[in-house]
Specification:
Largest sheet: none
Helix content: over 70%
Order of helices and strands: HHHH
Strand content: under 5%
Number of helices: 4
Distance between the termini: 20 Å
Mean pLDDT: 92
Length: 110
């Protein structure tokens, strides 16, 4: 099951690369939509096999993202800037710090 998930991720990445070469390619947009759909289907099937409620899992993931994002905003503010004005590199550093803080300072886990 996880092998199939990895296969779908590889297919999505290939389509992202194709789309990066020509962002106006409507056929590539259709292909990536199909591949992301396949990826989501396999992920939901994996959750089903693990007896995980996919809706609850998504709600938890969204809540976690929002907590971390709010912390990123607070970290940027404490540095005297708005998050949207921070460089991508700064935003990534804030994200890593927010993750570490949420995990009790425990580094870069997922």
């Amino acid at each position: 099951m996880v092998t199939k998930l990895n296969e779908e991720v590889d297919e999505v990445l290939a389509e992202f690369e194709a789309l990066a070469h020509d962002p106006d390619d409507t056929a590539a947009r259709d292909r990536i939509e199909d591949e992301i759909g396949d990826l989501l289907f396999v992920a939901a099937n994996l959750a089903r096999h693990a007896n995980v409620d996919t809706e609850r899992a998504m709600l938890r993931a969204n809540a976690k993202f929002e907590r971390r994002y709010r912390l990123m905003e607070a970290l940027a503010k404490s540095d005297g800037q708005a998050l949207e004005d921070a460089s991508l590199q700064q935003q990534e550093a804030y994200w890593a710090q927010a993750k570490a803080n949420e995990r009790g300072g425990g580094g870069e886990g997922r």
